[in-house]
Structure formats: structure tokens, C-alpha cells
């Protein structure tokens, strides 16, 4: 059975970048904003940066006000989901009758709709790159419109191609951890570091520049200058750091400890507990 057959609201058909479909969403359509209620939206690191800046909040403030932390099944990794309203329809906190108040900075999942992408589902059996599908909800009338797209032109039109590029390293890390045996677990301290580096970018900035981090690691001055000025670069730096210390990934930058700290723990990160039998 195709894994998509098991997921409610998803048409069990794999799409590629050249697959064609008809769809248009606009404020004259009867179902306008219905897709923004009773939903589950996982936020990526780049989503959080865009949203917290749009709302003029710190990352800590945004996370506290608008998200719910969870542990992702089969990964033991923390993720954050958008906290819905307490109204009967469980509405997105950013939707109004006139539309989305953060539309220009809306999350990756919202940009993809009415498509879904397998890599953003983080479910077993849907790892294949370039694997897309329809999220076919009964209330959606957008498929009755005549505007034609390919998956590729839709991604570009919605700006999701840029989101995917900036989310790729984080998504890869999540998928990689899911391949680990289930007995390999992270400590609570490690999960806290993972959460901070991925989602709480302002706190991670403090961790890098106001702790002993830069004394312990041999980081090139050009990189230090860049991550001081560019929080997207800082986010990418944090994910590479996590890959290096938690997964020992060869494709991650090699974070070398300064000689005097070579025998110390990596900036407070705990090792994976993998001795359960």
C-alpha cells in the first residue's frame, strides 16, 4: 500500500516538478480562508525567522506566543507547530475574514498548499526527493478554477523554492535522525540545545557571542563577521554545528575545538545515549 493511502485528505498520487494541475485561491471564492482553520503547521527555522521579524518580536517571544513545542515521532527531536486559536474552528492566529495578516511571510506549508511535499511530512516511507502530492480537502473550491500550473511554476510563484533551499539542511537532519535505531536517544540537555539552535535564533546568537563558544571553537573570522550580521547565516551555522556534534556528519563543516578545549565537551552538548539493548 502507498504510504499516502493512509493519510486523510491526501490524494494517493505522487507528483513531480512537471506534473500539471488547475488551482486558484482568491478572496471571491466561497471557501476563502477555510484552509486556515483546523490545521497542523510545522514551522521550519526559516519560517520562524520570517514570522518573528514580520511581527517585530524576538524569537523567544514569538515561540512563547504562537507555537507549541513537540517531540517528532520516530526522531526524538523537538519541533514547533503553530498554536491555533481557541475558537470553535481552531483558526490560525494570523487569519482574518480578509485573509492572512502575515501573507508575505507565511510558513512553508502554507505556501505549498494545495500541494504537500514528502520531505516536510517527516513520516516513514516518504523520503524521496521531488515527491509531491495533493492535499485535497472537501471544502476547497480552488481546483475548480481554470488557472493551470506545474508543480515547478507553483513553487516559484509562491516563493517556496527559496524556502526549500534554506530549509534543506534542517530537513535533511530530521530525515537523517529518523533512520537511527529507536534505542538511540538524546538527553534533555541535547534537545534543549537542538531547540535553541534551530528555533530560538536570538537565544542562539547570545549562546555563540556571549558564552565561551568562540573561545572553544576555531571559527574563521570571516564566518564570525557574517553570522553577526546575518541571522539566516547564523541559522545555517547553527544547523551545521548540530550536524557536526550530534551526528558527526561528513557533509557538515568540521567544528574543531581549540587545542586547550580538545578534551572538553562540545560547548555543553551531551552525547547521544545509545547503549540501550
Give an overview in words.
With 277 residues, the protein is of the alpha+beta class. The chain has 2 domains: 3-175, no CATH class; 183-261, no CATH class. It is built from 10 helices and 9 strands. The protein has helices spanning 45-54, 59-66, 108-112, 151-158, 160-178, 188-198, 201-210, 213-216, 221-229, 231-247; strands spanning 20-22, 42-43, 67-72, 77-82, 95-96, 99-100, 115-117, 132-134, 148-150. Strands 2-4-3 form a 3-stranded antiparallel sheet. A two-stranded antiparallel ribbon has the order 1-9. Strand 5 (95-96) and strand 6 (99-100) form a beta hairpin. Helix 9 (221-229) packs across helix 10 (231-247). It is globular. The two termini are 32 Å apart. Residues 1-9, 122-128 and 262-277 have low confidence and may be disordered.
Radius of gyration over all CA atoms, rounded: 20 Å
How many domains? The number is 2
Secondary structure category: alpha+beta
User: Helical percent range?
Assistant: 25-40%
What is the N-to-C order of secondary-structure elements (H for helix, E for strand)? EEHHEEEEHEEEHHHHHHH
- Name the overall outline: globular
- Name the average pLDDT: 85
Strand content: 5-15%
| Number of E strands | 9
Tally of helical segments? 10
Poorly predicted sequence stretches spanning 5 or more consecutive residues = 1-9, 122-128, 262-277
Neighbour order of strands in the largest sheet: 2-4-3
For the biggest sheet, the summary is: 3 strands, antiparallel
First and last CA, distance: 32 Å
